[in-house]
Amino acid sequence: MSAENTTTAWAGVANGKPLTKMELTLKQWDDDSVNLDVTHCGICGSDVHTLDEGWGPTDFPCVVGHEIAGVVTKVGKNVTNVKVGDRAGVGAQSGACHKCEMCLDGQENVCQGGIVYTYSSKWPSGDKSLGGYADKWRGDYRFVFKIPDNITNEIAATFFCAGITTFAPLSRANIIPGKSVVGIMGIGGLGHFGVQFAKGMGAKVVAISQSERKRDVAKELGCDDYINAQNKEDMEKHDSTLTHILCTGNGPDFQWRTYFALMKPNGHFINVSAPDWDFPGMNAFDLLSKQIHISGSGIGAPKEMEKMLQFAADKNIKPWIQKYKMDDVNQAIKDFRAGKPRFRYVLVN
Ligand SMILES: [Zn+2]
Ligand SMILES: [Zn+2]
Q: Which residues belong to any copy of the Enoyl reductase (ER) domain (predicted)?
């Protein structure tokens, strides 16, 4: 284990190069700081995308990983929500300004004064933020969340990005038990959480995919029905039936019209996917004739994180995970790239 102010991390060193184990210095300690011994870290598509510089240049060395679960080892004077020995986790956001209108309203995930992301970002001190492919993490207590007693760390880890990304928008979407019909586009790491949360909220849930490949697994996850968007019969059967679509993934050939056709009037199309290409244009009549609402959502606010963890604990929501040793991270990433996760990989220290 590394010394007090350093972490032993698996860092990206250059685009296309394997991750390399190295010692890096943690951010400066302050009264808001929490130290975690990382026990688990999920692998998110964002990690791989950042290492590949898919959204823009990456400042290497870069320690990715923002589905962190661990044990608190030290807390600063201002820390009120966790204590030494608590099991706790961290998601994609590690800091905010705490002064802007959004922060003051408890929507720190859309802070306008300076978000610190868990990696590929800088603290106000100028220190680089370092993610969870490491033995230690240090950051702001306001983005550290206690893990409920009935959720283990290995299960908890992936809630902190994939979980909150799908839970937060669904929890804001006025889902009515027994009445709402939620389509989940993309049955993968995010989508498999979306299915479980929407079911937990009492909706009827329909998986939407582009082939027959996920039909069986969608059923296993608890979906009530399945739409292969390439299948005319499926599209006709579900025409104008969905109150919500949660888009967790789509392809560059994505067409709005296909999905608007599935929606009931006044339906909500909620996008949480983050592709590196632009969405196509849409026909204005397709949008207005059904009074479709389109919205986006990114991660979630701290209060939503707490709500999600409680919801998951109460409803026994469980991600499907496969574990890799932290030291096997390069193999895990290789398998991730090959599209093998069913549905989330978790690195274990
Ligand atoms: Zn993520
Ligand atoms: Zn702010």
A: 12-347
